[in-house]
Amino acid sequence: MTRKHLLFILALLCGQVSFAQLIGFETGIPKQFQTSDKGKITLSTQYYKEGKQSLEWDFRSGSKLNVALEQPLTLDERMENSYGITLWIYNEAPQQDSIRFEFLSPQGDVSYWFNFQLASAGWRACWIGFQHMKGDKQNKEITSYRLIAPERKGRIFLDRLTFPVKKMNDRTTPDLQMPYNNSLSYRDLWHWCRVWQWEQYEYDIPLPTTLNQAEKDELCTVEQRLTTALDIQKAPREAVSKAYNVFQKARIQRSGTGFIGAPILTPDELDRSKGEISWNDLETMLSGFAYDTYYNHSETSRKNYFTVWDFAIDQGFSFGSGMGTNHHYGYQVRKIYTTAWLMRDAIWKAPNRDNILSTLIFWSALQETRQPYQYGRDELLDSWHTLLMAKTVSALLFTDERERVRALKGLSRWVSSSLQYTPGTIGGIKVDGTTFHHGGFYPAYTTGVLATVGQFISLTNNTVYEPTEDARQVLKSAFIAMRNYSNKYEWGIGISGRHPFGGSMKADDVAAFAHLALSGDLSGEGNAFDHHLAADYLRLCEKDTPEARYFKAQGITPAPAPQGFFVYNYGAAGIFRRNDWMVTLKGYTTDVWGSEIYRKDNRYGRYQSYGSVQIMGYPSRLASGYDENGWDWNRLPGTTTIHLPFELLDSPLPGTTMAHSRENFSGSSSLENRNGMFVTKLMERELKNFTPDFVARKSVFCFGNRMICLGSGIKNSNNSYSTETTLFQSIFHKGINSIQINGDEHKEVGFYQKINCKAEQPTCIKDSYNNYYFVKDGKIKVQIAEQKSLHEKTRAVTQGTFASSWIDHGKAPNNATYEYMIWIQPTSEELKKQALQSYEVLQRNNDAHIVHDYVTGITAYALFESFESQTDKLFHSIPAETMVMYRNDKDKIILSVCDPNLNISEKTYTTKEPSRIIKKQLELKGLWKPTKNSKQTEISYKANSTSLTVYCQHGQPVEITLINLPQ
């Protein structure tokens, strides 16, 4: 990814407006504002959106409000693409006309203009960049602009005016007032900003003339379930108290035809030091007053609830309003919807009912579901997580039952059609079960998403509104993936995105396992419910729930923890599990970013995907030895890194860094879903404080409870700081923990030792969590130390005590190597065996890492370059960048072939371009025949050899069983 691409992503994700001087009309009317044609401008306190007053413009037909610029503005191409104007306009009554804005040259030419529709009452944002304005755009010099009144008498109020805005918000939101003010909003990525586009959709589902009894009964069933799901039994005191506190600070008062009070603004424009409020404050007030009304029957809260609604609509949280930019609003309005359901009877009787309902329905984006889901639409996780419940509530808030039925049908269809595997790197669920957000595998955004979709399935279970079985099968794959990469509820740092020590399955995610299980048997076994999901639920659920009691009564017992090796190459990742432990292996490619680093999140997370091998031996990060306090960000286990001071490891860009590799050979493969391997062609990008010639070739072979870790070709030109491969870094509890080196125990803080390891005299280190590290090649260092670190968000100093060990490759290494084996939590019986005799490294150089495991009988190949051999027992040749695993089974071999490359053509922030097939041709010695036909493989013969062609896609291993043919 080029620096240009990274800066573009920064603009997309941050999207903050860089303001010129804000004119709030608090100190008077600027002299450059002049009226003509009997129009009049005055200061007014009747309405305001900033401070305590606004500019009132009383106009006549065709009046003009002229604004001269203090200095001429000449637009070049860059400025035309970034500059614009922002202001808020108050209109007292809906009209069928508009205000025209014109930008004038010194000669009076109008090269840029736009219309602002006056179709709504209240405050509405007027944000638009020059690139989206109308006009011939020939004359680039601007000396003034003017507002032209419609052909009638009237008045409007202006406030929060900024011109020129030097960097318009990239996510400026089209709406009823200005439907064309941002062409980017029609991209698949900008789902938040598409609400007005979707408002133009019309239902292709006819409105029923009448409802039969069955339809009424099913509608009633869904409504009753929703009430049960949203009933929290009593009003939370804190929520009610917060509602009154915010309400008091908001100082809402009726004024003219509307209101005054604390201006409601989007987070991008908000200044809380001025007393301004945003969507989350609306949520606080509306939900708190709703709870108090519903559970405590408070008449005061009921009045306050509807006062807040009237005020919010007047302020622009209303039908057809984009509020300038609405991005990410869903995260701040969820309780507005859940409590609106509790208040539905009162809303239906309210004088302002229609405006409240139209606002709720519009902002829920229910209008998107009037048509089938648009395949390739991005950022589904945000939509499912924050707006699916809002859509459900809104669908059931129509006063006409027939409208509710149609809306639910449309919503159900949309949910079913959105629950399909999405292509490329856009958001949604991938064929391997990984869930994508921000163009990457992102468990932290998955939690809550599965819960919300699962809840929708629960609400609609056994009704015509239930998502299809195909949709639920896709959803199940995401549940199974989350089960596999979580131990018990938490996942590894390598797949944590910008939350390196955070993120976990929550109780509502666990509950969703039961919801999905009860929707029907998705295993194909013909049971009344899915016994496998039910067993997973019982393992994860720690409460005595009705679902748990039911499953147990049906003979279901808790499932064991997942066992085996799981391939997730849409994240260039592998998960290795036995007993109750889990290992997360992580790399990155041209299609998979290595880490998500924000300006104030995960500042030091550069190395998350540099071949990390993180053991979670116990059911949490903390219990497994991982804590941010004192953590050395350079030493995530398994990674090969340049050990930098934190100020150099800090985020290299002022905004977002999501670096991709230039290599594609990174990911995992498995054999029989039991054992597996991981490989990464590591390279570092050319960014500030990076070392662009830093490369390494790394592999991990996973058998039983052993991992053989190999490295070769480790080199870079950084002469200032050492390159290291970390064996472990884990919390050390003084007086409780100890480590061992070749059987000698060490438990004192301050311990430090250097050891030169050789194949004929390997070093054995035991960490504090019952894992053994046998190092055959490398200069290792071991320490128990008090460490100081910096917090990944605040840069505050943190402290902790850790035991650590690493292989020191020195400064500017040239083709450095390593070899070590990790024995994970061996039993006392296993410890009697000679672990180092369990495997043999057949090759370890820049061309290939090949290992034979004597215990499982598996031979595994990580081929960085093309492989040809006269001495190999099975293969004449294997193409470059291929992972192969096989084992003999009498006269058969069980073989897997994998290229982890997703092979996506377009390299951009996100793409809907699909993974393309990669053809791999392997030459086997002897004659072999597949035991069954497969579309993913082809066989041909020549002389005494077999040509096996394998069609790889989605980074998934292709497994085949071959039987030896007699010569």
Question: In summary, what is this structure?
Answer:
Helix content is 22%, strand content 30%.
Report on the structure:
The protein has 967 residues and is an alpha+beta fold. The chain has 19 helices and 45 strands. Strands 21, 22, 23, 24, 25, 26, 27, 28, 29, 30, 31, 32 and 33 form a 13-stranded antiparallel beta sheet that branches. A seven-stranded antiparallel beta sheet has the order 34-35-36-39-40-45-42, with no helix packed on it. A hairpin with a 2-residue loop joins strand 43 (937-942) and strand 44. Helix 6 runs parallel beside helix 8 (334-342), helix 8 runs parallel beside helix 11 and helix 16 packs antiparallel against helix 17. The longest helix is centred in the N-terminal third of the chain and has 18 residues, at 213-230. The two termini are 52 Å apart. Residues 1-19 have low confidence and may be disordered.
Tell me the strand percentage band. Answer: 25-35%
- Give the C-alpha Rg: 31 Å
Q: Give the integer mean of the pLDDT values.
A: 95
Termini gap: 52 Å
Category from helices, strands and their pairing: alpha+beta
Tell me about the biggest sheet? Answer: 13 strands, antiparallel
Total number of strands: 45
Shape: globular
